[in-house]
Amino acid sequence: MLIALAEDQLIDALYAARSRHYVCPACRQPVHLRHGTRVQPHFAHRAKQRCTVVSEGETRQHIQGKRQLSLFFQPWGPVTLERIIPEIAQRADCWIQRPEKAPVAIEFQCSPITTAQVLARTRGYRRQATYPFWILGQRYCQYGVSWSLIERFATRLRGWGLSLLFWDVRRHQLRIDHHICQDALGNYHWRTTWVRRLTQLEAGNQMPLPKVSLDYSRWRSRLARDLRVKNAGVLAVQERLYAAGHHILDVPACLTTKAATLPIFGQGLLLWRALVISQLFAGPVTWISRQMVERAGRQSFETVGGHRHAVWFTGDQAVITAQRELLLELTAQGYLRVVHDGWQIQRRPTWGIIRK
Q: Competence protein CoiA nuclease-like domain: from which residue to which, for each copy (predicted)?
């Protein structure tokens, strides 16, 4: 904690004197000033005391990062360190009062936190008409981009697309993993950019994004390995396909696509497509209704381990778009014909090894 009360005045730990009596601005319990050659100046609650306001444990990184972030975001407006919002029992690491715009709360997250906690804090801030910026510390930098991080912290930023933000205390820089997406084979893609100034963040990405290439041979090898080791997710897909008389390694070539999606399709858009058509073209059926498409799309999404909801976005529209594009492609290739109440089956996709 960087800010405490002394005689009803807020005092920054940088300028605090040891001889004074300090209390927590939130719970009004006594706090100690900690200040030494190896310790960044900060206040701490006494042992076994629990504050009524949610806050993070004070590590050296967290203390340094909050001060650095307060300087980084200063061009947006006056910055208050550790602003307490009593209505939601929350202490924002940095509070930025932007002129004629909604305030911004910076959450510099260095310690473990659950999705439920992030969701609760985010909703609390939004109820206060405040935009929360979740910026991650060193413990999160060591991990690659995964659904665990995306679900809790990824947000859409103008000029950057779906992004994760990290602050490097040693470099005094913001790292942006941006334009996060997923290819048809289930791989995540993103670009990493470092920025030193807030103007660079506001300007958005200035570099061309790399084209995504798909390695079907490597994808098949990975699936074959997962089948051998009995990977639960891959076995779930195989069981569904096997029930329809197909094999996971023999996905029809007509389903291949270079489309990039939100990173929500679990094991990938291609396996989702394979599961959908295995249901739509099953047995002697010659006609497909919209209800059949919706049911197949929903069940297949669950089977590939899809994720419909994250803290900052939902995947509902992405699934609807994927269904529409699949049907358009199958119609254009002559497998389906549009009729007034659905689609008429013209011919059936051939299952076999994709050779690309």
A: 58-181
